[in-house]
Amino acid sequence: MHPLHHHVIKVNLKDIKPTQVSIGYIEVIKKRAEWKKLSKKQRNTLLDEHWFPSILGPKGEYYIIDHHHLGMALHLEDQIEVNLTVLKDLSWLDKPTFWRVMEFHQWVHPFNERGQRVAFSEIPSSVANLKDDPYRSLAGLARDEGAFAKDLTPFSEFLWADFFRIKIPKKTISNASKALNLAIRYAKTKEASYLPGWAGKSGF
After folding, report:
1. In CATH, what number does 8-132 get?
2. Which homologous superfamily is 134-192 in?
3. 20-67: per-residue pLDDT in tens?
4. How large is the angle between the packed helices 176-187 and 156-167, nearest 10 degrees?
5. What is the model's pTM?
């Protein structure tokens, strides 16, 4: 998703800053299950190969722009250190300008777990505080089932989550298989054709 950078540094996971408010906890659960199956050597290899791409922001703080689900999974598994790479140094900017540049480059997604836009100040200060958006989980599950193709557009799954949020009542989300079947069908309709990774009309 992001260009590789040769400057990799090791940081404490609790010190890195998210650039989104919410995640889909089902993806976190899957990543935790995968982590538990790995040997210590395999875990070290995974950490070495999954750098957190980041932007160096004001006060020298690192803002990750990808791998938020992995970050939460590692937090819940008590992993202390992770590797990250710095794609851009914006540490010399004031906070308002920093966030404006971040949004221009689509490096931040200031929308909460209900799909509502929030102030940049409401973005959690740690991956440990990311909120669960069940519709983001649904989007991830639908993508895994081939409802739409994985796309490099930043935050594309959140666009799908917002689409499903309109179409599928919240009370239906608790019925996982029903919600997933509906999501797959809605994803194939022409109405969803504006979304990244749309796979063609064959739904309702």
Report:
1. 3.90.1530.10
2. Ubiquitin-associated (UBA) domain (1.10.8.10)
3. 999 999 999 999 999 999 999 999 999 998 899 999 999 999 999 999
4. 110
5. 0.90
